[in-house]
Amino acid sequence: MAEPQPPNLHEGATTGDVEDEVQAAKSAEDRKAAAAMASMGSNGADDANGSTAVDQEAASKAMQSLGGEAKKPEAAVQKKVKVDAADVTLLVDQLDLTKPKATELLKAHDGDAVKAMKASIAV
Amino acid sequence: MPQPLSAKENSLFRQVIRNYEDKQYKRGLKAAEQILKKNPKHGDTMAMKALIINQQGNTDEAFALGKQALMADMKSHICWHVYGLLYRHQKNFEEAIKAYKSALKLEPDSLQIQRDLAFLQVQMRDYQGYIQSRTAMLQARSQIRQNWTALAVAHHLAGDLTQAETVLTKYEESLKVPPSKTDFENSEAVMYKNTIIAEQGDYQRALEHLESISKTNLDRLAVMELRAEYLTKLEKKEEAVKAYRALLDRNAEHPDYYNKLIEVMGIPAEDTAAKKAIYDEYSEKNPRSDAAKRLPLDFVTGDVFREAAKKYLTFMLDKGVPSTFANLKHLYVDSSKKETLESLAHEYYEAKKSDAGEAKADDPFKGEGAALYYLAQHYNFHLSRDLTKAMEFVNKGIEKAPENVEFQMTKARIIKHTGNTQKASEEMDKARNLDLKDRYINTKAAKYQLRNNETEKGLETVGLFTRNDSPAGPLNDLLDMQCIWFMTEDGEAQVRKGNVGLALKRFHTVYNIFDVWQEDQFDFHSFSLRKGQIRAYVDMVRWEDHVRDHPFYTRAALGAVKLYLDMHDGKTLTDGVNGEDKNGDAAERKKAAKKARKAEREAAEKAAKQDPNKPKAAVDETKKKDDDPDGLKLAATTEPLVEATKFLVHLLTYTPKNLEAQLAGFEVYMRREKYVLALGCLNAALALDASHPTVHEHTIRFLTAIRSKMASLPPKVQEVIKSEFTAIAPSTDLEEFNDEFLAKHKGSVPHAIAAIKMKELVDEDEDQASVEKQLASLLGAPGITFEDAQSILTILRGSRSKELDEFKKKAAEKWPEVTAFA
């Protein structure tokens, strides 16, 4: 059956008539169609003529060495801060913020709503 | 997973895609329906159909169908991709990103989906996501330089300079053959790398790198400028001096070069003589250079200034350069320089007048004429204003050169400063008639008409220089050309005329134009990379991040916020121009509407007569018709404060240092009872200008509101307000405070207005009527200007005061020339 819906995409998609969906192997035709389809809406293809001066092998080697480095640990792990839902609501109301923004702000101030509000209006 | 189709339908499906790409929507739709007849649940086809419908302008239907397509075939990346495209078309980029990501999960190898996703991510400033996408794209096609550069840009924008440099270096190392010297992309990429090194603060390495590429790089000027900059940073004084001299030899008009040269030569700021010597040296080398002659005037003083200014003024006036005054007026903040320039101009004028005989045949704008022009502008300038004298000189000028646009234009400006917008508009139109082919004077004339609330005439005037082939008249072209000044001026005029809808319409137009500017960058994410112009691209991305700090945005947004506040307070809608001629207004509006309808009908007829197969007609068809040309829907909003906040948020984010913005913020948040935010605005305003009259008003209003509301606020909010409201003690006797303020700013009418307004709030003995009386009596205050009187008039009008008519009459007696009181 279908995979779970990606979160918050849209409602109502889970109950489609999918009985008649046949999971067949992708034909070459479809691939072609997909490729064509995929080129829609983009700002023109930029299939640069792979510069001849590039040593393919060297490039991919360089790539790999880069990939190794690129996997650096993502920014310091954010410390876990407990946030009171009531405080979030308060901030949403008082500061005209969206929920995620309010939560973020609270977290940045150790979950202290007063501190967060003060900081947000600091000159 | 796509549902299979028969061979025949498969080819039909391909045709649908082809048709879509070739914009043959009708044909594509037909083919899609043919497939759907046999396979009503074929998701991909439904998705394509949705896309086509969307292109035809039917967004809602397209969305519904797009959803259905997804329901039918949730595992098709095509359906997801289309869904993303629909969202993108709607400018809902966040949802579009989600949809693209789903599509990508189903089809990880699709370069197109990946690319679309990447552009959305950078557009939304999701740099971490952009790095990921770019890394994936590089993995897929590592032989293309663009992909490397793009990854470096991603790291750069995310703030990781080291990684950005590494990426660029890695690519360079992988090259077998060095790129040719004329390879523009390479030249730019190398310079880009150089700026990244410098941004890391490692100037030594940046300099070395620069030297190694300087011979071959195509951007000579950038190399020279960067080299000079690095040398300065590294304190290699002698070489830096040489570098800046080399730059000055190329371009002796660049003020920056002079400043930097003086800096690296170690000349102290006080040593004006030594500084001037540098300029003199270049002035001698380049006798035609303006900068070398003019810039020293900024810092020299006393007799040296007099002499230098005399030389400069004589040179410029002899030549008859119209911009002479504009070049010098920034010096007027120094009162001694102002006086010197005034006397010099007079001297020059007298001298020329006495020996005018020989120069008669010459251009009337040289010598004596130029002096008259300078003096007229001098006395019109706000720091040295004497409108009677200004008028005297400009009339002499007009006498001398009646055909000269400049004199006539200045005359109009002088009249504007007397408050007579009617006459100013007439005079400017006279100036326009002196040179009908000049767009500048045409624009000026239109603006003056708008200032005089002649909106239709203004549009007509500006319409002389627009493309008028659209049925909606010049306004359409102005919209297409994003003519912000017109929208703003017209909006403000409509406010004065009491046309709320149209005014809002114009302000929203400006707002939307800024949105368009934001979206315009979309094309550059791919274009700039393809062209290899990375430095300019990064500049642009950074500029876009603060595009709304532009003064034009500030002005339109402030206008809109103010209007919404009035709507909330119930001050508008019933208010015509002056209240009394409301009926005439309504009739006029009806007439205008009728006229517009007629014009529309005629245009439609004309369009119908045209060959229907003409491609242009098709374009017009798809072009969205404005369903609210008069802004009636905007004016009908039930939540003016919410709308105001929309404008306000950008103001406070991008121009927090603008006092007007903070004041507007206070007004909005107080009405919405968001006291913490209101306090934030108040504190910011206090920091900017604590003695501003309106800030005083706001302080009192805040404390009054808090006193009555404090108990009902959440305890945490109370705590914040208690600790952050520090302007005055919470126990302050406000009546006393207000009186002190009045006494402290005795003689200043704006401060008096503020204090009197507040009396109603803080003094039990005063009510609205007595306050209005006092406001009206300010008319006799010493030093009152017609601008002050105008703001009193606005207040009285806002509260529909009984004093209004009397006040207006008296003001008209006092300032008969001011149009606003007429």
Topology:
The complex is a heterodimer of chains A (about 120) and B (about 800).
Chain A: H1 28-38, H2 56-70, H3 85-95, H4 99-108, H5 113-121
Helix pairs in contact in A: 3-4, 3-5
Chain B: H1 7-21, H2 25-38, H3 43-55, H4 59-72, H5 77-89, H6 93-106, H7 111-123, H8 127-140, H9 145-158, H10 161-173, H11 184-199, H12 203-214, H13 220-233, H14 237-250, H15 255-264, H16 272-285, H17 291-294, H18 302-319, H19 324-328, H20 335-354, H21 368-380, H22 387-400, H23 405-417, H24 421-434, H25 439-451, H26 455-462, H27 474-480, H28 484-497, H29 500-520, H30 522-531, H31 534-544, H32 551-569, H33 582-609, H34 615-622, H35 632-635, H36 640-654, H37 659-671, H38 675-688, H39 693-709, H40 715-724, H41 734-744, H42 749-762, H43 768-777, H44 786-798, H45 804-814
Features:
heterodimer; A: 123 residues; mainly alpha; 5 helices; 46% helix; elongated; disordered N terminus; B: 822 residues; Serine Threonine Protein Phosphatase 5, Tetratricopeptide repeat; 0% strand; globular
Short description:
The complex is a heterodimer of chains A (123) and B (822). Helix content of chain A is 46%, strand content 0%. Chain A is mostly helical.
Contiguous helical run count of chain B: 45
Overall mean pLDDT of chain A stands at 61
Euclidean distance between termini CA atoms of chain A: 56 Å
Mean pLDDT score of chain B: 89
Instruction: Report helical residue fraction of chain A.
Output: 40-55%
How would you describe what is shown here?
- The complex is a heterodimer of chains A (123) and B (822).
- Chain A is an all-alpha fold.
- Chain A has helices spanning 28-38, 56-70, 85-95, 99-108, 113-121.
- In chain A, 46% of the residues lie in helices and 0% in strands.
- Chain A is elongated.
- Mean pLDDT of chain A is 61; it is low at 1-30, 32-53 and 68-77.
- Chain B is mostly helical.
- Among the domains of chain B are: 7-192, Serine Threonine Protein Phosphatase 5, Tetratricopeptide repeat; 466-605 and 627-655, Alpha Horseshoe (Serine Threonine Protein Phosphatase 5, Tetratricopeptide repeat), CATH 1.25.40.1010.
- Helix content of chain B is 72%, strand content 0%.
- Chain B is built from 45 helices and no strands.
- In chain B, helix 11 (184-199) runs antiparallel to helix 12.
- The longest helix of chain B has 28 residues, at 582-609.
- At the A-B interface, helix 1, helix 2, helix 3 and helix 5 of A face helix 1, helix 3, helix 4, helix 5 and helix 6 of B.
